[in-house]
Amino acid sequence: MTRTLPKLVVSILALTVAFAAMAAGEPAGVKLPPYEKTTLENGLTLIFTEKHDVPLITFHGRIAGGEIVEPTGKEGVASILAELLQKGAGSRDALAFSRAVDSAGGVLRVSAGREGLSVSGDFLARDRKLMLELLSDMLIRPKLAKSEFEKVQQRSVEQIAAAKDNRPNSIIGAYFDAFLFGDHPYGKTGDETTIAGLSHADVKAFHKNHVGADRAILAFVGDFDAKSMKTDVEKVFGKWKKAAENLSKVKAVTPLEGRRVLLVDKPDATQTFFWIGNVGVARDDPGRVALDLANTAFGGRFTSMLNTELRIKTGLSYGARSRLTQYREPGTVAITSYTKTESTEEALDRAIQVLKDLEQSGLSDETLDSVKAYVFGLFPLDLETSNDLAARLTEIEFYGLDDSDVNDYGEQIMSATAEQVKTVIERVYPAPDHLTFVLIGNADEIREVAKKYGDVTEMKITAPTFRAKQ
Length: 470
Hints:
- The chain has two domains: 45-237, CATH 3.30.830.10; 260-460, Cytochrome Bc1 Complex, Chain A, domain 1, CATH 3.30.830.10.
- The chain has helices at 4-24, 77-84, 94-103, 128-140, 146-166, 172-181, 192-196, 200-210, 226-237, 288-299, 305-313, 344-361, 365-378, 386-398, 404-407, 409-415, 418-428, 443-451; strands at 36-39, 45-50, 56-64, 107-112, 116-124, 216-222, 260-265, 271-279, 320-325, 332-340, 436-441, 455-460.
- Strand 9 and strand 10 form a beta hairpin.
- The protein is an alpha+beta fold.
- 44% of the residues lie in helices and 18% in strands.
- The strands form two sheets. It has a six-stranded mixed beta sheet with strand order 1-2-6-3-5-4, sandwiched between helices.
């Protein structure tokens, strides 16, 4: 709550400034601050940006690999490792490690994603020695205690089961990825079966094989002298070994043709949760700006086309969005929403019709001007904090982009044309005849409806996996 109101006020002010700037024909003034980048002999990439407004140091890092390199049958091991990295390292057990972070008022987080592990945090500048000690211990010398592994493993299985029971919207994306990508690495997702089958040795092997200096990028932003900070970081990370295995390249997947439906039966459901989509584009897609504008208008804000149709006008849902998930290779583009069981067919039909409208007509001049102002005004908030900046610098490096990803973004927003947006819509969004559907709901009530949209594959939500038997 402490951050919501200020963020809202800033958003309104940003939009006001955006409209004024657009009217004056002025480009957005958001630019990356000066930074230094270096790569150590072990392959570790380091980025430093001085920011002396507060006595704080923030860091963000990515270690390439993540879920895409999990061995077959051991999906979920990356997420288990991410939790265990925070459960003791160096000379400190889990409790001592946690107390060391808390006693300094610091923050230290690790998470696993599709293409890598992410680490972030911040400490007071005066505690940077402790910060670097804890960070290096965690990444290079984690305890990975068996007792902690067993607790994390059990809790992870229980959380998935609980989500299937109470929060199907939180796990429907896992069903969608598995159904859309199949055996491709982007379809990997840890489930109750694979996580329960992991051994302590599996986690230790994954750390050895896939967590190393040559896979890592670390960005530091804050109150320090870059030269001395670089010296301190090199001291603790200079001898970090490379990962034992080379990072394999993921092959791109092309959009699937035709329609197909996965129906996940949840007999007690009174609502149907649904995702509709196909393969999208990669993070480095050249049409990024036009795509951001299109997706914001389609399903990226409250007054979007999807939310207007499914929530505001018809009351069929409390919310409808469009999602763009972009990796080093093409990810997904999807419509996501939910509705009462009895209105499943109407909600699906209306969502598809909105997609057709988008592809046939593109954006009107009025809508394009509105969405330009919206994206233009909110963009500065993406770099509002030191953590935002550290994350963006890491992202740019991770995806092989350059500073223009930020520095030219505002100007490209203002100069984008309706024709450019229409072109990217036609290229990226799936045609209505080529859609993958995932529905979670009461199968007895919606089975016949599901058949309307394509060949149906059915599974029970109680199955200990996200992957249907084909």
